[in-house]
Every structure is written in C-alpha cells, then in structure tokens.
Amino acid sequence: MKRCYSITALQLILLVAFCSTGCNSISKWRGQSPDVIPGSTDPESQEYITDITTVWGLSYAKVEGIALATQLEGMGSDPKPSQQRAYLVSEMRANDVAKPNEVLASEDTSLVLVRGFMPPGIRKGDRFDVEIRTLPGGDTKSLRGGFLMETSLRQMEAMGGRVLQGHIVGGVKGPIIVDAVYDRSDEQNENRGRVLGMAVAKYDRPLGLAISSENHSVRITAAIAKAINNRFHVVDNGGLIGAATPKNDRHIELSVPPRYKHNLARYLEVVGQIKYRETSQELAKRLMTLEKQLLEPSTTKRAAFKLEAIGETAVDVLKTGMESPDAEVRFSSAMALAYMDVPESAKELGSAAKVERAFRWNAMTALAAMDDVEAGMQLSELLDMRSAETRYGAFYALRVRSPSQSVFESTLRPDDFFFHVVPSKSFPMIHFSKYKRPEIALFGHDQTVKDNFLFVKKGLTIRALEGTDKIKISKFSRRDDDVSQVCSNQVVDLIQSLVSIDMDFGEILEVFQEAKASEMLNSKLVIDATPKPGRNYERESDEITPEEPSRFVGGPIPDLFRGSTEGREQKWRPNETAAYYEDEDAGRKKNKGFMNRLTGWWGK
C-alpha cells in the first residue's frame, strides 16, 4: 500500500528557514568536506585540523646588511661613492667608529654586502649562516682571511629613492670563509664568501595556524587549540604548557616541542592530522581502520602520520606495523614511534639508515630526537659505514643529540671553528663543513700524511722532513716575527700546529685540498657530505594503484641536514604526506630586497 505525504505551506517555510540557518551552522564544522555531518560515526569523517586551517610563518625571512670586512692584508679597497658607502659611514659613526672614511680608505678593509635567511620557527639566540659579497665593479681583490665586523641585520627595502629599514632582527660578526676554498674554478669566488653559524637571531619568528574564513569562530579555534594541547607540550619557565596558543578567533600560534626542533615539517604535518572533534568510540573505530591502512604500503605513510597525531593510544598499532614484512611499512611505523620516544623503534631506524638511502636522513633525524640509549647506539654503529655521507650524518646527529658527549668536544678555537676526532672503523676520512658552523671532523685516529708532504704559498711552507716522521712548518710575516715549528706527521698534530700559528678554517682547508690534489694524503678528504634531495624508494611490488606514484619519495631532507642557505627565498608547507618547497620567483620579481633593487648583486 502506498503512503502519500503532503507538505503544508507552514512546513515548507520552516524547512527553508532551517536550511538557511542550521545548515550554515553545520557547514562551519565540516571544513572542506561538504559530505560530512558533525557527530558522524564515520572514522574518516573530515574533522582533521588540516581540513580547515593553513599554516602561516613558513617563509624564509631574508635579512641584509652593509658591513666592513677587515684583516685583508692589502687585498681590500676604498669603496667608490655610493648609497651603500654613505649607509656604512653613517652606521660606523652611530657605533662611535673614529674617522670612518680613513678606515674605509685602507687596503686592509672592504665594504661588503651581507645577506642571510632566517628559517621558519627560528628562536631568539639561534644561529644561522650569512653570505658575503663585495660591491660589483669594486677594486677589492680578495676577502680571503677577512673578518666581518659586527653588523646589524635588517629586512630592507628601496622605495621611491629611499632606503626603508626594518627593525634589527639579527646580528653577525666572525671570520669570512671565501667560496674559493670550496671551489677554485671561479675567480669571482675570491670576492664572495660566508660566515658560518655566527649570525644570531634577536627575536623569535612565530608560526601557527589560520582558520579558514568559512569556519572560523572562537568555539572552533578553542577546540583546535585544546586538541593540539592534549597532544603536544613545551617547556616554559620550568613547567609544561600546551603548544598551541589562540590569538583570536582565526589565528593560533604554535610552539615547537624540542623533539621536533630539527624536523619542523613533520611536526606541522602531524598537527594537521589531529582530529579536533572525536568521541572515544569514534577513535576506537578509527584505530581499526588506520591499522589496516598502516599495513598497506600504498597508504602506510599517511596512516602513520595520523597514528602519530593520536599519540600514546596508537602505540600498539604502530608496533604491529614494525612487524610487517614490508620495509616501507616498518619504516613509517618506526618513524612515528621514534617521535614518541618508544625504544623499540631505534633498531628498525638504524637498519633503515644502513640499507636504504631514501630513508637514511629522516631515520637519523628521528634517532637524534630520541632520549633512549638505544638510539645513540644505532647512530654510533653508522660511524663505521663506508658511505661518507652516512658517517658524517651519524656524527652530526650524535653531536646534536648529546652536545656534551666528550668524544665530540672541540678543544681548538671554538670561537673560530670546531675540530673533532671521531672513532670509526672504516677508512680514514677528513671532513670539512660548508654550512651551519665551520667544523673539521677527523674520522679515525692515527691518520697520517705521506712522507712527501709539501705545501708552499706566499709566507708559508709546510714540508715533510726526509727520513723522519716529522713535519716542519715555517711561517714568514712582514709584520710579525717569523714562526717555525716541528710536529709529527699525524693529521691531528698537523692541524693543532696550524692552529697554533693562527691559521683559520679556510687556510687549513686550502692546505688539505692542495695535499689531496697532489696525492699526499693517506686519508679521504670530503667537503660537505650532506644529503641531496630527490632520492627515491622503489617499492618491491608493481601493483600500484592508479592514484599512487610508481616511486615513493623518501621525504624531504629534514632541517637537521639542510644547509642554512639551501631553499633560500622559498616557502614551504606541509601537504598530505610530507613537506615540500615551493618556489616564489613571481613574488620576488614584485618585491625585491634592498640590495637587489640597488645593485642586482646576487645575480640569478
């Protein structure tokens, strides 16, 4: 029997009224998914933070300065009249430098342009690199051996013939390492260089979440902040507080927990995968769904992020993933567990770092974030690998993880550069850094130079004494007394002796580069053995769904191993499974910095 329904005019009016008010109210909770109803028992209902927020504060902040380089030993020049010179003179007078024009006229000094890139989330007191160049068309011959005098770093802009200066956001001073010591093929590299790890941020660069315009309200902002604070905490004035601080009905500021300090991309991805509205029954049902997704290689990475966002309740599911026969599933599960400091994850991450380079850098970063002793043991084992990148990466991760570990302490010139002797059973290796701080790492004790060792340049001779295991160093100076000393042919002793006669990081690197070119080293010389992007993991199975790529990218290089100037003038953001870098060329063309507007000095 058929039933007939009729709608009266009054009922129709009430229905329309409900849709114009109640439906709009519901849509505020839906985020970007129009098919989800609040309170739905669907375990994958789209009430994740990432669905209704965007991240702000992820751009690199370019900072600039005009500065004075000294100690150039006759290779400098008096800068020609220019806006830059006038600016530097005014800065020198403001800092009580007597007779600034006479200082600039000396051939031992040079006007230089400075720029750096302050990364997202940098905190007051954190250090970063800056790049140095002379003015185009200037007469300075070389910045080699120079020292950058204390310089204020600002965000600057040239508009309407005027220089607009922002607040001082950083400062820098320190020894200049010319690019020529890394690459001697370009003569211009004598007039450009860098100061590693000596620039200091004077302010925090905050980052956070912005609620989409169609969803924002005080209630939703509070719900999102509460969900984040239930999962993440930071230390403030000796106590724990939540990582999220609502600023208004649309913006939430985020603090970064120490465990994610060197992998900001992962932290933001995990925050995005937190559900801000979920009952305990819904969570239990979702865990079962996520376990199935975790065990499937094509969905394992996304599932692992979501389980990491849940936190301690998801540990058992992730441990199940570590028992999978699939390497990708085990790795994704172990990564999530590592950032919860679960000890069982360390061994799996150590194995992944040894056998799969697409996983290596994220694995070592996660091990560095762990407190458990097993993580340190796994990194120590990597010091014996044949790969130079793996050994240096493990050393760097160990040093960051335990900066006070005595075996890695530097006793030489910590105000200038750092020198470490690292135990390693693999072939002897000498590593020179290029980013973050000037550092020499000697892998393996008892390294020696060959008995035909010889280095000669103006004012310096280093040669092996025939028939002995000794090295004689003779330094001649037109200003100071000549210096002569003898040391053993041990690399450690040679470096210590070079430091004792006041040679800097760049000069010592030059000695060893020349020795390598002349085949006078018994060790392998390596510069900047850091990871390069674009390493892929090939899945064993060919059964890839049409939506999945045929190759799995191991993930972006985490901040721990990223050079301080890599990705500069770029903005990055998390996507569904990993952070990536997005070029901003169009924005730069419209809004060039002060230096670029005046001179185009950095080139393309």
Architecture overview:
- By secondary structure, the protein is an alpha+beta fold.
- Among the domains are: 49-216 and 567-604, no CATH class; 448-522, no CATH class.
- Helix content is 32%, strand content 24%.
- The chain contains 18 helices and 25 strands.
- The protein has a six-stranded antiparallel β-barrel with strand order 2-3-4-8-6-5. It has a four-stranded antiparallel beta sheet with strand order 1-9-13-12.
- Strand 3 and strand 4 form a beta hairpin.
- The longest helix has 22 residues, at 9-30.
- Mean pLDDT is 80; it is low at 1-44, 541-554 and 566-604.
Strand proportion, as a percent range, falls in 15-25%
Number of strands: 25
**Low-pLDDT regions:** 1-44, 541-554, 566-604
Q: Give the spatial strand order of the biggest sheet.
A: 2-3-4-8-6-5
Let me know the average pLDDT: 80
Radius of gyration, in angstroms, nearest whole number: 29 Å
What form results from the Cα inertia axes? flat
- Helix tally equals 18
First-to-last CA distance? 79 Å
Note the topology:
Blueprint: H1 9-30, H2 49-52, E1 53-56, E2 61-70, H3 83-94, H4 100-105, E3 110-118, E4 127-134, E5 147-159, E6 162-175, E7 177-178, E8 192-201, E9 207-211, H5 218-231, E10 233-236, E11 239-242, E12 244-246, E13 251-254, H6 264-272, H7 280-294, H8 300-310, H9 315-321, H10 327-338, H11 345-355, H12 357-369, H13 373-382, H14 388-401, E14 418-422, E15 429-432, E16 439-443, E17 454-457, E18 460-464, E19 470-475, E20 483-488, H15 491-500, H16 505-517, E21 524-527, E22 536-537, E23 552-553, E24 570-574, E25 579-583, H17 585-590, H18 594-599
Parallel strand pairs: 14-16, 15-21
Antiparallel strand pairs: 1-9, 2-3, 2-5, 3-4, 4-8, 5-6, 6-8, 7-8, 9-13, 10-11, 12-13, 15-16, 17-18, 18-19, 19-20, 22-23, 24-25
